Amino acid sequence: MDASFGFTVDLDEEMVVRTIRGSVATTSVQDGNDISVTSLTTEYLEDPMGVDKPIPRVSWQIQVNDEHVRSSSQRSITQQSYQLHVKTTPMSLGDDDDDTVDCCGWIDCGWVVSNQTHLVPLQCNSVTPFTKSDIDIEWKVSIRLEPEKNGDNKNTSPVIVSDAARFRTAIVGSWNAKWITGGTLLRKEFTMPDVKHYATLFVSGIGYHHVYLDGKKVGDHQLDPGWTDFSKRVWYSTYDMTTELQQRKATTTDNKHVLSVILGNGWWSCGPPPGTNQPMCSSDPPQLILQLHVDGKPVLVSDETWSVSNDSPVQYNSLYNGETFDARVAERIHGWQSPGYITATSSWSAATLSTSVATKARLVSQLFPPIRHISTTPPVTITIVSQPSTGTAATKNITQLVDFGQNQAAVVRLKRIHCSRGMEITMRHAEVLMHPPYGDFDGTTIYTDNLRTAQATDRYICSGDPKGETYTPLFTQHGFRYVEISGLDHTLELSDLEAVELHTDVQRTSYLHFTDPLLEQIQDMVLSSLMSNLMSVQTDCPQRDERRGWMGDAALTAEIAALSFGMGAFYTHWLDQMMDAQNPNNGGMPNFVPPLNSEPDGAPNWQTAYVMILWVLSTHYGDQEVLLRHHESIVRYYYFLELSYNQTGIAKFREKYGDWCPPPPHPKAYEHLTGAFAFLGDLKLGMDIFRNSPHPDAPFMLRRLTELFTKTAPEFHDSFYNVTTGVYMSGLQTEQALPLYLGVVPDDVEQSVLNHLISDIEVTNGGHTTSGIIGIKYEMEALSILGRGDVALDLALQTTYPSWGYMLQNQYEPSTTVWELWNSDTSGPGMNSRNHHMFGSVAGWMYKYVAGIAPLKPGFAHVQIKPNVLRLDGISAKVASPHGDIKVFYSKREAGLFGYDITLPPGTTGTFIVPIAMDDINIGRTHEGHPMEIEILESGRIIWSDSGFVAGVAGILGAARENDHVHLELGNGSYQFQVSVAVNLELKDQ
């Protein structure tokens, strides 16, 4: 970005992104300018294991290298055709009993005339579909940027070829392995076969499992597999074992090896007394199914020949309550993960076959990112809370408070702690410290009442190892900033421990920066809350005795999640669980998924998550296959909505929770109005879904929903609008914002309703909202849509109660994550999480209405860029689309002079909407009747003046003025715009 803009952010320097594997190949084309094919993925993932689709979908991106990013010759680049190439392993095409077939060079799949680069079916002659288990596939793609000439099918234009990506197929059909149980430690010795090509491990241990080969952990998954309704679906994980097996075989002389597994309760098992304290858990113990393949064939399976024991160092484990680990037991059973360990003792027995409900469920490949250890955070401070007087027997119990400075979903790792044998170290986790009104503030007492019955306590019993002891909990997770540690006889150093962050490992893909630090802090706070609640499903909170997949929370933040992270695979599989949970009798959806003890028909605005996430996958990712797969379920859901409407009409449309959690003392909006809003909002989302769906019945459903919306929209107004007062219902902000957002307010009263909303915010409530989680999302968006983004920005920048700034700048508990309540600092303890994402919709508003980036066609094929430049000196945004990064940089240079840098990747076009009205751009002086003179330049060339559009600049396809904006139509590429607005003092408007 031009330094003269006065606002410079190098996004690449601020990002920490994992290296993309198997991605970049560069070919010089078009006058030596470098273009490459990058970011190869299969079903949204890089080199995934366990692909369970016979014809998986692959994606790639066309990358213009940075040194040419400013060149106008690198605009409107379009892929004209592509050819996929597939390479399989030798056994992949052989007979089931023949692994000697040597086949497998690259197979060319034929040129396809298409600009499609995202979610392209991997169809390739006789190679596909992939209907065998455990096939290792490599693939790459060639593209051409020029069309065929003269229709002779002999295209000689340059070809750009990617590097190879790969994937491995899942288990197709039935398993050879059996579900086994009987102990939480399981082991099997075996003789290693030769690994000619590759080896694969398929495993599911529920609740959670860790697998080891000769004592070394396999993979890096944590709290695995992901949570499901275990009676219907159980995820299994797939690991590449090639390197591990080859290395272990090379380092042993007798070729004897051990696969061992340790199991935890997770969401599956209640465990032995006192139990896990988790709802709807099973009385059945943990269980395992495992299958090891070498060169595509099973060589080891779980069955009754495995040995099992309950003599585990993990003495207790619960997601809610924590974990107890006895290192003395680990010392006593040392060697159990090594060959030759004697299991002929009373503590070991043969495994038994499980008959639990999970054995009847479908085993499905967990084809989305696992939960991992993401990062580590060192303590900020360690404070001694209590230290008994020297010389007493109690001196061996010092209580210390550790502050990690960040509320997060994590566990605490003890690092090389020196402690005597039998010493018990207790770690109690908390989000905040005690303060009024809960008690006196002393800066050292943790507050845990908001955890309700969750104990959130880990215990480590020392073995007395003189080298020091390291411990990371295996089967639990907590939401905390503070940890109270007791039981040690010495004070801790900062280097003695760290917080290990845990969540589903979705990649951060997009970034947003402002010159106003408060907006940045709010954005960070929201994203921290989202990450803390991506736990194979999208939960509400990570700390108390709940942590459920609440649909209402996800409906409000699905857009910002998809804008910020790679959510395609995650949401695809959570949607499948929603389909599992759908009411078979009427098509309704529960309040949370997995459903546990949820009502079969959830509340409006909660059920909305199903259609909202489908809409997000369609709109943000351009995924049509998911619409086809869910067509029957989504149709059943809309029939359920229509039935609900027919039973009550709009005026009494059903509702349960309504606009949840408005700020006291303000009342909740009229619940039937919020229920009716959900009904109409779902109809609008459904209209978009069926408009984009390739299903043959989609046009019929589009007409049906359109007719229903057209019929019921006037009914909404008639039911809730008070002609006497000129407002909806009692005049609350939510009650005005929801119909304004829906667009159901008649033209003749729309402005007066908007004026009332603004007055209630600015005058009646001093620049504050009175809305709950639903109202605040659509209040911000309605204001922006109707041209009053300035009022929405004021709400975002507010720092007194109720506001996000109030959370951030709170006297006693300055937040690093979003509170559950506007007044969490004074409410509770029953419902008072400090790490909830349901008020996080403001972060999505920042992308859509401040940076102004929003998809107009599925998959960001066409994008709108309409920055809201009010009072902000600079905006820097990068949004990852399926085609590549969309970048917007804005800066205010001086009064009336503005700079915009815009980058659109190949595969994306855009409409750049440039504000030119005096009020919109705030140039710092009034025109007082004098006409404005507007000039827009791109890289120094005039493209718009008072005379209109000036053609001739590559990539700028057209322009037109609409009211107070100029609309510029852009092809892909990078642009530098300068916009100047001046007042002609010599002339007066006529």
TrEMBL record:
InterPro entries in the record: Alpha_rhamnosid, Bac_rhamnosid6H, Bac_rhamnosid_C, Bac_rhamnosid_N, Rhamnosid_concanavalin
Alpha-L-rhamnosidase C-terminal domain boundaries: 852-916
Occurrences of domain Alpha-L-rhamnosidase six-hairpin glycosidase (ranges): 508-850
Entry keywords, A to Z: Hydrolase
Domain Alpha-L-rhamnosidase concanavalin-like: 397-502
GO molecular function per UniProt: hydrolase activity
Nucleotidyltransferase as UniProt keyword: no
Signal peptide: none
Annotated Bacterial alpha-L-rhamnosidase N-terminal domain residues: 199-373
Domain of life: Eukaryota
Protein's UniProt name: Alpha-L-rhamnosidase
The organism of origin for this protein: Nitzschia inconspicua
Lineage: Eukaryota, Sar, Stramenopiles, Ochrophyta, Bacillariophyta
